[in-house]
Amino acid sequence: MTTPTKNARTEARRKEREEQRRADVKRQRLIYGGVGAAVVLLAVVIAVLSVGETDDRVGVSEVAGDVEVDGDTLPPIPDGAADPAVGQPAPVLSGADFDGTPMTVGDGAQLVSFVASWCPACDAELPLVVDWLTTSGPPEDVQFVMVSTNHDDSRQNWPPQDWFAAAGYTGDVLVDDVASSAFRAYGLTATPSWVVISDEGEVLFRASGMIDPAQFDTLAELAASG
């Protein structure tokens, strides 16, 4: 037979277990609630920092220049055939460098390289160009110009002016516009691309792809003699 004393002890233990269970539930809610709040706070911080980084990043529209094209667009460079653009008037490109200094391509003896900062071949070739300009470079009557084109702020080596600076290039640069008008005017489809222009403003040579550094002098002399 169960006694009143035993019933009381049983009821007391039941209440004690119930209180312990409620305490455990409350403690877990506090822990998980704290973790959840911390996760939310971290997400907010990351979002704020991300917005800040996005706002601070220089976009294409802030880097691209304004380019005016005077002349007919050249035909595309053919694959394995004579270039129909050779002997044609070179389109005259009027624009500026990254600092806003006026720059012109196509109105005199020039060796021109069209490059994109994100282009792996351009990245490999730029130091070779810098070495050539440092050791010899073109004749005094031939201007070497790079056209920074095909801008893409989502890819490597952005912004392009920092890419040029990191490679030690301090020469002339014409900055293409958002639509790559300079690039398209010369009938180009890839970077790097090279164009040789005579003193009379005629196209003497075009090529896509990296050029053997041993040919830099040859191309510069072609511009001088053309």
Describe the structure.
Strand 7 and strand 8 form a beta hairpin. The chain is built from six helices and eight strands. It folds into two domains: 56 residues; 165 residues, Glutaredoxin (3-Layer(aba) Sandwich). The chain has a five-stranded mixed beta sheet with strand order 6-5-4-7-8, with helices on one face. The chain has a three-stranded antiparallel beta sheet with strand order 1-2-3. By secondary structure, it is an alpha/beta fold.
Helix content: 40-55%
SSE string: HHEEEEHEHEHEEH
Approximately how much beta-strand content do the residues carry?
15-25%
Query: How does the helix and strand content classify structurally?
Result: alpha/beta
CATH architecture verdict of the largest domain = 3-Layer(aba) Sandwich
Count, helices: 6
Overall pLDDT score: 86
In the CATH hierarchy, the third-tier topology of the largest domain is known as Glutaredoxin
Distance from N terminus to C terminus (CA atoms, Å) equals 123 Å
Report strand order across the widest sheet. 6-5-4-7-8
What are the main properties of this structure?
about 230 residues, alpha/beta, Glutaredoxin, 5-stranded mixed sheet, 6 helices, about 40% helix, rod-shaped
How would the blueprint of this fold be written?
Blueprint: H1 4-56, H2 60-63, E1 68-70, E2 92-96, E3 102-105, E4 110-115, H3 120-135, E5 143-148, H4 160-167, E6 172-175, H5 181-185, E7 193-197, E8 203-208, H6 216-225
Parallel strand pairs: 4-5, 5-6
Antiparallel strand pairs: 1-2, 2-3, 4-7, 7-8
